[in-house]
């Protein structure tokens, strides 16, 4: 889901590796990337530092693996929401905002870990930044595909507009503790879809 993966991610999965990734994802989601040190991950996971570095050459590689794990989880949830929306592409596009609202109202919602990764690792060559950008590009490509399926003449422009609405809703929901931001964004998206020319 996140595009280019580091060599650390390509290693075969193991129970210890999965536990480390899940623990790191939990802690990074709670506290951010720079604020959460490797020792905190090791303490909560209950593993030795050597075990960590046997799987991940650096903290950045662990972060990328955590981002990939979240991408898998997110993809599964979104795919279910899209399937439940039926076959009509426009209905699927609007269902994305319903799915966002469910996420916003969940106890797990703490903003977007990809936006946070890109902001904490602002250089384009940083592995977390690359992973975050790849995830967002994957989501944008989903929007492009649905816009094309809907027969929209300028699918590229509409996909970017819907992406802006979704990303803005995430920020507003987090910053203002306002899950209703998803509904506002959905209403705006419906207006754009209605005006989009086939």
In short:
The chain has helices at residues 7-10, 15-31, 38-45, 49-55, 59-84, 89-104, 113-120, 127-149, 155-175, 181-195. With 198 residues, it is mainly alpha-helical.
Task: Please explain how this structure is put together.
It is a single chain. With 198 residues, the chain is mainly α. It has one domain (12-195): Tetracycline Repressor, domain 2. 73% of the residues lie in helices and 0% in strands. The longest helix has 26 residues, at 59-84.
Keywords:
0% strand; Tetracycline Repressor, domain 2; disordered N terminus; mainly alpha; 198 residues; single chain; elongated
Per CATH, the superfamily is Tetracycline Repressor, domain 2
Percent helix, as a range, is over 70%
Radius of gyration from CA coordinates: 18 Å
Topology as a string of helices (H) and strands (E):
HHHHHHHHHH
Mean pLDDT: 93
What is the terminal separation in angstroms? 30 Å
| Distinct helical segment count | 10
**Main sheet attributes: strand count, strand direction, barrel closure:** none
Structural class: mainly alpha
Structural domain count = 1
Q: Got a strand count?
A: 0
CATH architectural type = Orthogonal Bundle
Stated plainly, the CATH topology is called: Tetracycline Repressor, domain 2
What overall geometry do the principal axes of the alpha carbons give?
elongated
CATH C-level category = Mainly Alpha
Unreliable residue stretches: 1-12
């Amino acid at each position: 889901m996140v595009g280019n993966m580091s060599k650390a991610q390509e290693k075969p999965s193991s129970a210890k590796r999965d536990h480390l990734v899940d623990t790191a994802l939990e802690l990074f989601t709670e506290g951010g990337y720079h604020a959460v040190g490797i020792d905190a991950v090791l303490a909560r996971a209950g593993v030795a530092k050597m075990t960590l570095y046997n799987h991940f050459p650096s903290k950045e590689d662990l972060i990328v693996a955590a981002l990939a794990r979240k991408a898998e989880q997110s993809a599964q949830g979104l795919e279910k929401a899209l399937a439940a929306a039926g076959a009509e592409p426009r209905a699927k596009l609007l269902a994305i905002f319903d799915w966002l609202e469910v996420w916003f109202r969940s106890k797990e919602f703490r903003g977007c870990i990809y936006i946070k990764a890109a902001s904490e690792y602002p250089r384009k060559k940083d592995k977390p930044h690359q992973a975050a950008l790849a995830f967002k590009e994957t989501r944008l490509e989903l929007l492009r595909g649905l816009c094309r399926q809907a027969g929209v003449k300028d699918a590229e422009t509409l996909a970017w507009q819907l992406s802006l609405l979704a990303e803005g809703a995430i920020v507003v929901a987090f910053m203002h503790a306002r899950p209703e931001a998803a509904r506002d964004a959905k209403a705006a998206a419906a207006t754009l879809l209605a005006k989009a020319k086939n």
